[in-house]
Amino acid sequence: MLILGRSGAGKSVSMRNLDPKTTGIINCDRQELMFPHNGFKTVLNDAGKPDLTQSNYIETSKPSSVLAVLKAWNNSPTIKTIVIDTLTHLITSYYITDALGKEFGGYKELGTSFWNIINTVRTMNKNVIVFGHLKTEFNDDGVKEVTMKSHGNMIKEFEAESYFNILLLAEVIKKEDKLEYVFRTEPKSFAEKIKAPVTFVGDTVARVLDKHEPNDLAKLLVKLDKF
């Protein structure tokens, strides 16, 4: 599942009710989590490096490290849900430190790293939620689209949104003079690539999710697990 939203739209805080016993967080933004998170810890081994079999929280902005964590946690008997927060900052970090100003090889490695992470996520047997920053731009046909913010034409050509069967937008809406943080599950136009599961009641299509779901990944996953 891919969840896109602008900075401050509530992506990270939506993890607040996830169970640390069954959840792993990969913090690519390397910012302090904005909720009590005593249950999420990085356990170091004797060499002073993260023990991926004991840790459920990893801060890293290196694609190779993210891949290693994903593969280790995919084999974990306890971790059921994995969150990458955010794929956009992971790409940005690699772009600045390893690709910018270099020849084509640097950009090729950026594209390869991105593909390896996306392809690994697609083949995992866990609930994997990927956060990304939202960007509005015009495509080659002059149509305004909502996409995941990234760097490099190679990654843009991949169309990250196309590799996820669920895509939601994290938003802040005004309701009864109050601001609410929500996940929007229905597009307002063709410019938005929102994808949400549906079911059938006879010949009638029924949505599994409400138009605006509460900004709470734990509740969202319970609802999706019933689907």
Care to describe what's here?
The protein is an alpha/beta fold and 227 residues long. It has a single domain (2-225), classed as Rossmann fold (3-Layer(aba) Sandwich). The chain has helices spanning 63-74, 87-99, 104-122, 153-158, 217-225, and strands spanning 2-5, 23-27, 57-59, 81-85, 127-138, 144-148, 167-175, 178-184, 198-201, 204-207, 212-214. The strands form two sheets. Strands 1, 2, 3, 4, 5, 6, 7, 8 and 11 form a nine-stranded mixed beta sheet that branches. Strand 7 and strand 8 (178-184) form a beta hairpin. The protein is globular and about 55 Å long. The two termini are 14 Å apart.
Instruction: Give the overall silhouette.
Output: globular
Summarize the biggest pleated sheet.
9 strands, mixed
CATH class annotation? Alpha Beta
- Stretches with pLDDT under 50, minimum 5 residues: none
Outline of the structure:
The chain is an alpha/beta fold.
Task: Tell me the layout of helices and strands.
Blueprint: E1 2-5, E2 23-27, E3 57-59, H1 63-74, E4 81-85, H2 87-99, H3 104-122, E5 127-138, E6 144-148, H4 153-158, E7 167-175, E8 178-184, E9 198-201, E10 204-207, E11 212-214, H5 217-225
Parallel strand pairs: 1-5, 1-7, 2-3, 2-4, 4-5
Antiparallel strand pairs: 5-6, 7-8, 8-11, 9-10
Helix pairs in contact: 1-3, 2-3
